[in-house]
Amino acid sequence: MHSAILLAAGLGTRMGKSVKDKILAPIGHSNAFRMSFSAFSRTKEISSIIIVYRDNEQKKILQNEVQLTSHSTSALKISFVKGGEQRSDSVRNGLRAIPDVCQYTHIHDCARPMIRSATIQKLISEVENMNPVALAHPAVNTIRKDLSVTDDINPMRVTETLNRNELWEMETPQSAPKSWLIKGYHKAQELNIRVTDDMHAMELLSKKIILINPGYPNPKITNLNDLRLIKFLLDS
Any bridge partners for residue 15, and if so which? Predict the structure, then answer.
C-alpha cells in the first residue's frame, strides 16, 4: 500500500508580505494545496495521506480544503501532523505518522501544484520494483560552482563551470520504500547532515535512484513571479 506526505509547513519568506500563505494563494478557482491534494487523492493506489501543517490556524484552513475536495473518499485515511523547524524535520514527523500497512511513501512539496495523477502512477510503478524515484528536469542553464571563501566585501569570485549535461534539477514527488526513507533520514541525523532532498537520504544508504522527467513544467512557488507563471501555464 502507498502513502503520501504532503509538506505544507513551509514559511514562504521569499513571497513577501503580500501573500500570507503561498500554498493557499488563489490560483484561478483553486490553490497549490488543493491541486496537490487532489492529484494524490485521485490516485487509487494511495491509501493514506499525511498533511504536514505549520500551525493550528493553517491546520483549520487545510482541513476545510480537504473537505472541499470531492475526490477524497472514506477509504482514504487522512492525517494531520505538525511540521518541524526544517523540511527534514517535517518529513521525519510525517514518516512517523504513516500507517504500518503502507510499504511505499511519496513525499511532495505542496508548493509544486502542477503534479498530475498520471505522473504519480509512474512513480508508483517504479517504487513497487524497489527503486527510489523522483521527478526532475535536466538542467538547461549553465551552472557555476563557487570555489571562493565567502566574502561579501570582495565581489570577485573564483568559480568552476559544471557540465550541465550531467546535472538535473530535483523536483517532487520523491518516492521510496517507507523503511528506506526512515533509515536514510535517521542516518542523516546521525551524521548531522541537513537533507533538503529525499533522494539524498537514499544516497546515504548507497541506493541507486531513478529520475523521471514529467514532460511538463513542474515549478515550485517561491516568489510572486512563480505564482504568476503557474497561473499563466494553467491558462495557456
Answer: none
* Domain encompassing residue 63: 2-235
Neighbours of 142 (CB within 10 A): 10
What CATH number corresponds to the domain at position 199? 3.90.550.10
**Which amino acid would we find at residue 206?**
S
Q: Which three cell numbers stand for residue 155?
A: 565581489
Number of domains in the chain: 1
Each residue's pLDDT tens digit, 62-91: 999 999 886 656 689 999 999 999 999 999
The string of pLDDT tens digits covering residues 168-208 is 999 999 999 999 999 999 999 999 999 999 999 999 999 99
Q: Looking at residue 157, what is its pLDDT?
A: 78
Best CA proximity match to 71, nearest among 48, 44, 38, 46: 38
H or E segment to which residue 106 belongs: strand 104-109
* Burial environment of residue 6 by CB neighbours within 10 A (0 to 12, 13 to 18, 19 or more): buried
Burial 107-139 (b: 16+ CB within 10 A, else e): bbbbbbbbbbeebbebbbebbeeebbbbbbbee
Residue 93 in grid coordinates: 514527523
The verdict on pTM exceeding 0.90 is yes
